[in-house]
Amino acid sequence: RSDGADFAFRYQAPATRAGTFTLNGQVEAVWRYEEQLLPITPAVNKVNVVTDSAVDGLMDSAVVSPRGRATLAWQRSEWFASVTTAYTPRYQSESTTPTAALPAATGLDGDWIGSSVRWDFQGGYTVPRARRGAGSGAGRWLGDTTWTLGVRNVFDRAPAVRSVSSVSVRSICT
């Protein structure tokens, strides 16, 4: 069973000489994500628990909540750019303190793996479509194409450290 909601918004400001600006975002919130190994065993809420099936016999799980993303975009004629930030909350794994969802966890990383924020940048140019019958060469071949350059994790921040448990090491080695 699961309960949650997704929220999204988008606002486009009126066009100006500087271009058009758009702000959009989304938030995913999950209040309950229960898994049950057998009908006779209790269901376990696995929100903010990240595991693989080798750990607990249940499904691979990566339900973290709330997660959010926001983007500010700009466009002026053929040019465009955007900056995006994405938030991932703290979570528990097979290397954090044992819980009902992870009774065999090792505790190497304390109670939680820390949250993270990532910033991305993208910019580009759309080559105008060549007029019919006009010229030949690169303009006709490149017309109506878009060239984009993007950088993920602009500030080069590593996510929170997560230890590798012996269960994960064994599953990689076999």
First-last Cα distance: 33 Å
Helix content: under 10%
Q: Give the helices and strands as they follow along the chain.
A: EEEEHEEEEEHEH
**Low-confidence parts, pLDDT < 50 over ≥5 residues?**
166-174
Q: What is the count of DSSP helices, taking H or I runs of 4+ residues?
A: 3
Number of strands: 10
Query: Averaged pLDDT, please?
Result: 85
Estimated radius of gyration: 23 Å
* Percent of sequence in beta strands: 35-45%
Q: Largest sheet, if any?
A: 7 strands, antiparallel
Structural class: mainly beta
Q: Brief overview, please?
A:
This protein is mainly beta. Helix content is 10%, strand content 43%. It is elongated, with a radius of gyration of 23 Å.
Word description of this protein:
The protein is mainly beta. Helix content is 10%, strand content 43%. The chain has helices at residues 53-56, 138-142, 166-173, and strands at 2-12, 20-35, 44-45, 49-51, 61-63, 67-76, 79-88, 92-93, 116-126, 146-151. Strands 1, 2, 3, 6, 7, 9 and 10 form a 7-stranded antiparallel β-sheet that branches. A 3-stranded mixed β-sheet has the order 5-4-8. The longest helix has 8 residues, at 166-173.
